[in-house]
Every structure is written in structure tokens, then in C-alpha cells.
Amino acid sequence: MIAKSLIIVVAGAMLTGCGSVRQAYKPNQLGNLADHRDASGIEVTLSPDKYRARIGDPVTFKVTIRNVGTDPILFPADPDLLLTWVYPDGKRDNLVRGDRKSAPKYFVLAPGEEHVAHSVVTTYYFDRGGIHEFRAIVRGDQLAMNTERPAWQGRAVSNGFGVLFDAN
Predict the structure, then answer these.
(1) What is the CB neighbour count within 10 angstroms for residue 23?
(2) How many CB atoms lie within 10 A of CB 46?
(3) Are 45 and 159 in contact (CB under 8 A)?
(4) What is the pLDDT of residues 67-82, one digit of tens each?
(5) b/e burial code for range 61-100 (CB count within 10 A of at least 16 → b)
(6) 3-class secondary structure, 36
(7) Three-class SS state of 123
């Protein structure tokens, strides 16, 4: 009886433990987070056309892709660009690009040069106001396989950018 009670107590202690449950990340900073992660000489910077919008307003993002390395990089003219965001409640979503039908074209991005892309997010389906945090992710690994000379391969993540949405 005592042994059985001791086993129950030990098992209960092991199940409760001292660990903590990781809470979902919820955006709370308006504006530029300045926390980008460059990859193989490519740095991505995201900036919206507005810091504050109403739900339903489109938000246009400028995505600047810069060669911060010391060597020229063969880079896709139409890069694989994914725009992601976190809603105020911690749910995540993204803007999916359509399939490409033609072979990718490349250009040389010299050290210090940049390529600018734009992406528009329609927000009519956002369901609550508050700060939504956006990021851009540029990938080159799948595009690089079809070139004669080595093209950029990697995954660069932009800075986060918090945009405040009003529900009405």
C-alpha cells in the first residue's frame, strides 16, 4: 500500500514537472523590428506603405533584396518570395505565390546592389484589430538547380514589421 502510494506520488511529480508550456507568439511592436536574418550574402528588408490601416484596406509591401557580400551573386529576376504574418492572437498566415510556367531568368547582383519587389496583402478577411507582424522570406534553393552557372542558394528572412489594423 505504501509502495503504491509512493509510485503515484512520484509519477504525479514527474508529470507535473518544472517545465513550462510555450505560449504562442503574439505581436506587440509597431514598426520595424530590425531583426532580419541574411543568408549567403543576401539581406532582405521589408517596409509597408503604411504603419496603420483599416481592416479591408490593402497594404503594399516593398521588399528590398540587397547583396551584402563581397562577391557578385547570380540572382533570379523574379525571386521565390513568400510574405508571412502573425495575427494579434498568434495565428499565422501567408500569401502563396502561384506556380511559375516559364523558366526563371537571372541577373548578376553586384556587391551593394539591390533588387526591389512589391507584394500586396488584401486584408478584408482579417478578423480582428491590433498589431499584425509581417515578414518576407526569399528562397533561392529550388530556382538555382536549373542554371548553367551557380546561382544564389539559400533562405533569407526579412525584418519583422508591425502594422496596426483598426477593426472599423
Answers:
(1) 7
(2) 22
(3) yes
(4) 999 999 988 888 888 9
(5) bebebbbebeeebbbbeebbbbbbbbbbeeeeeebeeeee
(6) coil
(7) coil
